[in-house]
Amino acid sequence: MKRSKRNITPNESYRVGPVSYPRFSFGKFGSHYLKREFYFDVHPPLGKMLVGLSGYLAGYNGSFEFKSGEKYPEEVNYTFMRVFNAAFGVVCVPLAYYTARELGFRRATIWLVSLMHLMARVVGLIIIPVLVYVFSFYLHFLVLENSGPGDAQMSSLFQANLRGTEVGKDSPLEIALGSRVTLKNMGYGGGLLHSHIQTYPEGSTQQQVTCYHHKDANNDWFIYPSRREPEYDPSAPLKFVGDGDVIRLIHGQTGRNLHSHAISAPITKSHYEVSCYGNVTIGDDKDHWLVEVVDDVASKDRSKIRTLTTAFRLRHPVLGCYLRAGNVNLPQWGFKQIETTCVKENKPSDVYTHWNVESHFNDRLPPGDPGSYKSPFLKDFIHLNVAMMTSNNALVPDPDKQDDLASKFWQWPILNVGLRMCSWDDNTIKYYLLGNPFVYWGSTFSLGIFGLLVIWYLVRWQRGYNELSQADINHIHYSGLYPVIGWILHYLPFIVMGRVTYVHHYYPALYYAILTFGFCVDWLTQTMDVKSRWVIYSLLYAIIVGMFVHFRVLVFGIEGSSQQWGHLDWLSGWRIAN
């Protein structure tokens, strides 16, 4: 009798639970690459491009949204995608092996370092990483040619060159009185000039003015003549706006004038506050703004402002200050939007005082094609990186909310905390991010041991002992000190930064701590006989492998109730069973 064969789906060879952290974010980013939609994230693009490449090679079309807790559909070959990306982590192990060889460790120590390096990443020197970093952004811009959710973080000219964008589409080229416009700040990470009905809690208590990346009707402004000129007449001949003209900007939704006065800004106290005040008929000279053209990528003619291509500044004639939007975020009362002020210093090179018209609406003017001019790659590269850094710094802990995923920098070297990567429901396959305890504690302990070794030899050297040869000193320098410096350089940023942090932020520093552990073992066993050294190394190998076997359920997935694994909660902060 012939047996029937059941078709094996791609995901049946690997136990896959629902979408979990951080796959819901990186899977979503990979989908953007497959759909070629521009998006914004605080991290560099190369890793996420590799996720997109794995999906492309697996035949995935980018339609799955990777929402947390959802099941993977059959058409998503998740097994291939996971193996593809995990392979880069596997490659780190032989890289650690050859790094240890170059540092002059004995072969037994080399294998110890290779075994310990399961989760860490390798970092090269300087030039090659910089080239790879810049080239990854070049590919990022090349692949993401369609308009997407991250458009607003980029310059207006960059957005205008994306397929499917509305920026600059059918916008008249030259700006006239009566035009409805949106104004984009040209500083790195700049947003759109914005206002809403909420008022400042202090200062003038007038209507707030901010910069905001989200596109809505609160970004619309009408260009009107100054109060010293006749009122705007829609039936009168068109009058175009150019360098040296004094105008008013009237908020489209509330009808109030863009205004400034000699009151300190809410956050940057050395600047003047900018608000919305009055209406079309009620106001004063403090509603006026003088246009100063800085540059135009399309023309040397400064007699007119052009959509997208003209960079200009807005000077307050009464106060002599310039409209500016830096990278300072307002508190929660300002919805964390960008503080917009009037800066007293006249610095023409300050790009945060530069503005351009992003969208332009005027029924009396013919549509143009201002998006035919390209934005330079280097400028886009810097712009996106500053926007990434600004958004990254804005990811500060909220004191009013409890974040069970976040952790502090001091908890990582001592493995005081782990990370639940998905729902802890009994019906869910659960994964817990926890390092090998011996690897963490051993590598952290070795940092202190290395410091004591250096102090020991320095004290003995000062007392006249010359027990170290030049070769020994070089070995300590290159094989011991360099890894410690690498650990400091990769750990220190997370100590000083104010953003929310997670356990995986320690992985680059962990790589160097592991190399330091290898050096300490290598140095302290160098005077032993071969048999004694192999006993020590065999014991270390056994402990590392034994730890992995003991905690293997965290890697392969916890099924059913987590309470049965309470014996794995060695520390109260691990929260595996409760």
Short description:
The chain is of the alpha+beta class.
Could you spell the SSE succession in H and E letters? HHHHHHEEEEEEEEEEEEHEEHHHHH
| Overall pLDDT metric | 85
Low-confidence spans: 1-14, 118-123
Strand % is 5-15%
The radius of gyration is 30 Å
> Going across the major beta sheet, what is the strand order?
9-8-5-4-1-12
> How many helical stretches?
12
Question: How much helix is in the residues?
Answer: 25-40%
State the end-to-end distance: 52 Å
Pathway: Protein modification; protein glycosylation
Domain MIR: 172-226, 238-294, 302-360
Transmembrane segments: 38-59, 79-98, 110-139, 438-459, 480-500, 506-524, 536-558
Keywords: Endoplasmic reticulum, Glycosyltransferase, Membrane, Repeat, Transferase, Transmembrane, Transmembrane helix
Annotate the secondary structure layout.
Layout: H1 23-35, H2 46-57, H3 78-102, H4 107-116, H5 127-143, H6 156-160, E1 180-185, E2 192-199, E3 207-212, E4 221-225, E5 246-251, E6 257-264, E7 272-277, E8 289-296, E9 310-315, E10 322-329, E11 338-343, E12 355-361, H7 377-393, E13 419-420, E14 432-433, H8 437-462, H9 470-496, H10 507-524, H11 530-550, H12 552-556
Helix pairs in contact: 1-2, 2-3, 3-4, 4-10, 4-11, 8-10, 9-10
